Amino acid sequence: MSLICSSQRRGIHLDQSELLCKKGCGFYGNTAWQGLCSKCWREENQREKQKQIQEDWALAEKLQREEEEAYASRHQKAQSQPTITPFSKFEERKTKEKSSKVNTVTKFFIPSTKTPPKKGIVYIPSPSSSTSRQSCVDSDHATREFIDFLKPLKSGREIFKQCRAFTESMVYKRVSIERGSSDHVESVMDEVEKYMMTRLYKEVFCPETTDDEKKDLAIQKRIRALHWVTIEMLCVPVDEEIPEVSDSVVKAITDVIEMDSKRVPKDKLACITRCSKHIFNAIKVSKKEAASADDFLPTLIYIVLKANPPRLQSNIQYITRFCNPSRLMTGEDGYYFTNLCCAVAFIEKLDGQSLNLSSEEFELYMSGQASPHWTQASGASSCSPGSAALSQVHERLDMLTGLGERQERVMEKARQLESDLIDWTDEVEQKVQSVLESFPPETQNPTATTASGTSAAPSAIDSDNVENELLPPPLQPQVFAG
């Protein structure tokens, strides 16, 4: 994936050969399969497994030959020394135990001819014993791999029972394996996929044994940090001022978000396909001509950035692991899914050079210390229409940034004023306290005259006078009849 810049056009260009399998088979590749399609990936793995099986088989044959030679040598020595001692009995028992262990390893690769085959396993005679042994080894190896895969699953035992019942019915009941038409087979596979994946969704989607959740959080954080990326930076040929285009963009965002609510891989793929078709429609209406691949990928990146789909990496991995491989290798579903994987990879590696920005500008935008300012003049020379609306948006963003700075200054002054008020209050309290300490309160009169002319009771100041008891009682007013 590379960024092509020229005086007429600046945008993201993806060579279609990059979407195809690296083996050159013509099918679509996938980053999860190291750029191979599912067919080539399966063949590559099969070759590796076959090589490992052959090495294991050679080791088993070597151990068997060594044991046979050792046993023949011991047997020859035993015949030449017929005297039996307690030590020789011990050696014989030890030899038998060792032979039993080696035979156990050998039996792991070779079916026993002395015991009947276990239920559910049928050994088909072959002109070549080596071919029969190889078939048995492959069967055992596949069984072990299947059991290891099912162990972490809650319903793994039940799945194994059902699969074993199916194989037994095929072997003993001689069920016909005549295949129908390709459409019929595809329909059956779709229904089986729907049933199985709906039942197992909670167990196999974003399992704890993988790092899918970690990748989800990383891409979600990355997309949030790239919220400032504009249509003009990606050279997206979409004019959102046109109502039909705006509606298509909203539908595309809705579809890619809705992907997380589906359980069946086929349904998740359908969401990606619908999203992509809405993108093509938006481009077609904006340009008044058919969209090209160079128009589609930048617009898909823009839609993903605007939508920030939930659990994006988990959904991609789920589709890769459990979807019918033929859907990912060919057809429009495979094409759109491959482009989505490319869009996510581009977002993960996006830098200033990809957007024709300096590293300093890119870091400022990523940290939120600045926002891109696109004037209408620069927008008119870009490859995207709708520059007037974008300029208005950026002007409002700059206005909001200015308001934020003004609010920060007002808050700073408010905090300073609050601090000054606290200092002033403390200063006033100190002055009042100083005045009170410098001027003690004056002594009041021992008696006070009431409004009626009578004297009030002695004040508390006379309570310490020891001669109070010797004084005559106070005069009481008398009333004379006149």
Automatic annotation (TrEMBL):
GO terms for biological process: vesicle-mediated transport. Residues 15-49 form the A20-type domain. Residues 68-98, 437-482 are annotated as: Disordered. One of its GO terms (cellular component) is cytosol. Residues 89-98 have a biased composition (Basic and acidic residues). Keywords: Metal-binding, Zinc, Zinc-finger. It comes from the Eukaryota. Residues 446-460 have a biased composition (Low complexity). GO terms for molecular function: DNA binding; guanyl-nucleotide exchange factor activity; small GTPase binding; zinc ion binding. SUPFAM superfamilies: Glucocorticoid receptor-like (DNA-binding domain), VPS9 domain. InterPro entries: VPS9, Vps9-like, VPS9_dom_sf, Znf_A20. Residues 213-356 form the VPS9 domain. It holds the Pfam family VPS9. This is RAB guanine nucleotide exchange factor (GEF) 1, like. It comes from Seriola lalandi dorsalis.
